[in-house]
Amino acid sequence: ALARVHTVLSLSSWQGAEIRRLVEEEFAPYSVGNQVTVSGPEVQLRPATAQTLALALHELRTNCAKYGALSTLSGRLSVTWQDEDGVLCMDWQEQGGPPVQKPTSQGFGTRSVLASIESQLGGRADFDWRSEGLLCRLAVPLTPQAAIAERAPMREAAAERAGSGR
Question: Which of 17, 25, 20 lies closest to 90 in space, CA to CA?
Fold first, then answer.
């Protein structure tokens, strides 16, 4: 994950990285079977944000491939994002994989994603362990000045978008 993001950053002389490129690089091994769909506007990330987000995405993808939707041929993953007033809001939605149960304790992957998104970037990471598949929402400030404002619980907002097909 670090090697991929460093390659992307070096192509821009370490000025930043486009989110779509990071996501597509991470999911390149799954592009053949149309298991992964990605969509969102062009969003340029600062180098530190790109590196941290790439590691979080790698951890989510690894767990998805081991235990989640990408562990079966019928599984599907949708990754969407948008810029909401200087905050990158990314939705990760799995479906069609093995039934999911909420973990009784946080594993390394969940702790890693929480630490990187919340502690390093000042963002938020919410997990909804739905039986049909994990729904995760990441909110990451795009600039040092952007703050994660108090919003309706992100899980509810992500669930609404999932229900509306967004």
Answer: 20
Give the span between the Cα atoms of 78 and 41, in whole angstroms. 15
Q: Are 125 and 75 in contact (CB under 8 A)?
A: no
CA atoms within 13 A on the CB side of 23: 21
CA dist 155 and 157 (Å) reads: 5
Give residue 86's Cα distance to chain centre.
17
CA atoms within 13 A on the CB side of 84: 17
Q: Indicate the pairing of strand 87-95 with strand 133-141.
A: antiparallel
- The owner of tokens 């989110």 is 19
DSSP-derived 3-state class of residue 7: helix
pLDDT digits (tens, 9 = 90+) for 49-80: 888 898 899 899 989 999 999 999 999 999 99
Name residue, tokens 């598949």: 133
pTM of the full predicted structure? 0.78
Smallest Cα–Cα separation from 81: which of 39, 34, 121? Answer: 39
Residues 135 and 125: their CA atoms lie apart, in Å, by 11
